[in-house]
Amino acid sequence: MLRRLIVKRSLFAIVQLLGASIIIFVIVRLLPSDPATAILGTSVQEEQVEALRERLGLNKSIPEQYWIWLQDVFHGDLGRSWFTSNNVVDDLGQRLPATFELILLALFVSIVILIPLGVITARRSRSIYSKVADKGVFSYGMLAGATPDFWLGLVLLFLFWVQLDWVPAPLGRISISITPPDTITGFLIIDSTIQGNWAALKSALGHLVLPVFVLAFVYGAPLLKMTRNTVSRMLDAEFIDQGRAAGLSDRMLTRMALKNSLPPVITLAGVVFGFVVGGAVLVETVFSWGGVGQYAVQSIANADFNAIQGFVLVATGISIFIYLAVDILHYLIDPRVEAG
Fold first, then answer.
1. In a 3-state reduction of DSSP, which class is residue 338?
2. What does the buried/exposed string (b/e) look like for 52-66 if buried means 16 or more CB atoms within 10 Å of the residue's CB?
3. What separation in angstroms does the CA of 112 have from each of 105, 223, 326?
4. 87 - beta bridge partners?
5. What is the predicted pLDDT for the residue at 241?
6. What is the per-residue DSSP string for 91-107?
7. Residue 87 DSSP SS3
8. Residue 203 to residue 174: CA distance in whole angstroms
9. Alpha carbons 317 and 336: distance in angstroms, whole number
């Protein structure tokens, strides 16, 4: 059953990715910019611009361009960046660990802090703290939903870096005065720990504090609200009343309620992961993080079609993979889930 689920979801994921690639390619080609002009500048002759457009294949129709690009993608070639002069695959490969380190840690912080907090506030739904908890969760959700991530990052930098000097300058993942560890996984905190480079570990953690907080604060709010609502609803369910009548402890009843609340929470966690990937684009720019998000912003500014397409395609593929993992987790939690 699990194998059937994985096969069917994987085939559907391939169709989704193919459809997304078409949309990505067409939208990028409709951008009001000319890569040839962006590369050569405006002071060159029109003949030189046309010659470069022909060399880049931009004078072909969009379907022809897409077919050529798709064939290259199937061979693992996302094209060459016109701005960095490197293969897009190499550029993304160098920058993906930085982005993954940021977004995975932000998601980890959100799950570890906000889901237990949601369970705690749900357990107190019948106590005098109920109204306070409701208002607190509601206020946090409204505040997080109304706060732009890049704006929050700038405000926190002004407060904790400019005014208080509590955090390092937003100039990358590690201070320039610190020797970075040798690359093993690409995750600085892991590589520093493995190699015992404690100065690099301290610097990397210091640089992670604010961007991780920004992403966790802005995008973690739905997890808290969903956890509290679903667990609270489960605690009012009939099977919980039966368990309470049978003499089960509150801890056991809460565990039962949480287990039955996991499917929607896991689904939302997958959605939040996709939002965090998108949110990292501007947050990385604010903190000069050097990940794929900052790379995407630079690519858009320079009309670097191949880099833009590569980034969006990879980000889409990551999101589709996460949703596939969510489906598998649903099945593992409740094997009654059908692969239909």
1. coil
2. bbeebeeeeeeeebb
3. 10, 11, 18
4. 80
5. 83
6. HHHHHHHHHHHHHHHHH
7. strand
8. 6
9. 27
Beta bridge partners of 139: none
The token pair at 88 is 């897009």
And the tokens for 60?
């072909």
pLDDT at 197: 93
Q: Tokens in use for 48?
A: 């030189």
Q: In the numeric block, which tokens belong to residue 303?
A: 């009309």
- 81, burial (CB in 10 Å: exposed 0-12, middle 13-18, buried 19+): buried
pLDDT digits (tens, 9 = 90+) for 115-143: 888 888 887 655 666 677 778 888 888 88
Give residue 51's identity as a one-letter amino acid code: A
Decide: 234 and 260 in contact? Cβ < 8 Å.
Answer: yes
**Cα 117 from chain centroid (whole Å):** 22
* Of 291, 280, 300, residue with least CA distance to 153: 280
- The more confidently predicted of residues 200 and 334 is 200
Query: Distance between CA atoms of 117 and 139, rounded to whole angstroms?
Result: 15
Structure tokens at 315: 């980000």
For residue 184, give the DSSP letter.
S
Could you tell me how many residues make up the chain?
340
Pick 40 or 183 by higher pLDDT: 183
